[in-house]
Amino acid sequence: MANGTMAPERVKTILFEPTPRRLRVEVEKTVVADTIRGMILIESGHLPVYYFPRADVRFDLLEESSRTTHCPYKGEAAYWHLILGARKIEDAVWGYPRPVATAPGYEPPQGPTAESLSEYVAFYWNKVDHWYEEDEEVFVHPRNPYKRVDAIASRRRVEVIIGGEMVATSTNAIFLFETGVPVRYYLPREDVRPSVLQSSETHSRCPYKGIASYHRVVVNGKDYGDLAWYYPDPLQEAYRIKDRIAFYNEKVDAIKIEGIEQPKP
Q: Which domain does 46 fall in, by range?
């Protein structure tokens, strides 16, 4: 740096702590892991990961893999293939038989020590068929217990401008505040110009809100693609946004709140 001092080293934080939720993993209609003693690993810069006690995993369906990888914060990872009948899912499971306890820039886990990681294994989310927390299926990745999703009603006027035209305006929006994500503004469908919304086959999944459907947005003959979405059947925690339309803040010309243009994410 210009003054001759060193920039502070970024600290790596890893939380490895119990989760009270029953966790299940299913492949080919077979439950391959089922626990009420699971752990969640929350590592800065990564999505959360569920870890299962070895005793609660169907190791009779696993075959050791020759693959290994190295993490400076957790150690050498071992891998297993998952085999069910004729189906072999390569390197579907991993664990740290001899995890490291310390590393440069590492802040020790809050909760069990790093060594306890050796008693657990994890599954690649997208290599198995279904994940369940209690009796509800969850998608994409584990829900982070330190993340909030708040759907709050607001009478502030929201205006959405695309292609130089105002395509939506509302004083009856739901503002969705989600940790680490730009504020999204969910508008009643009747407050959006119906002519700009075209059908789309696109869908996406969110572990906090559910399955989203999309609309292509067409303004004055120009197709802007899947710029708007809605949740026809959101999870209960986000039920207030049901069937409301949201637009990508970062892709529209502008979103204005009470006439003030909002910074793009």
A: 12-138
The CA distance from 214 to 203, in Å, is 6
Residue 76, amino acid: E
Reduced to 3 DSSP states, what percent helix, strand and coil does the chain have, rounded to the nearest 5? 10, 55, 35
Query: Helix, strand or coil for residue 3?
Result: coil
One domain for residues 105 and 160: no
Q: Which of 203-225 are b and which e, b meaning 16 or more Cβ less than 10 Å from the residue's Cβ?
A: eeebbbbbebbbbbbbbeeeebe
Last residue of a domain, one of 138, 163, 187: 138
* In contact, 124 and 91? CB cutoff 8 Å: yes
Measured CA to CA, the distance from residue 259 to residue 205 in angstroms comes to: 32
Mean pLDDT of 125-134: 96
Q: Among 89, 108, 138, where does a domain finish?
A: 138
- Judge whether residue 1 has pLDDT over 70: no
Q: What is the CATH number of the domain that holds 69?
A: 2.170.150.40
Q: What would the pLDDT profile of 130-139 be if each residue is shown by its tens digit?
A: 999 999 899 9
Domains identified in the chain, total number: 2
The answer, yes or no, to whether residue 14 has pLDDT greater than 70, is yes
User: For residue 112, what pLDDT band results from cuts at 50, 70 and 90?
Assistant: very low
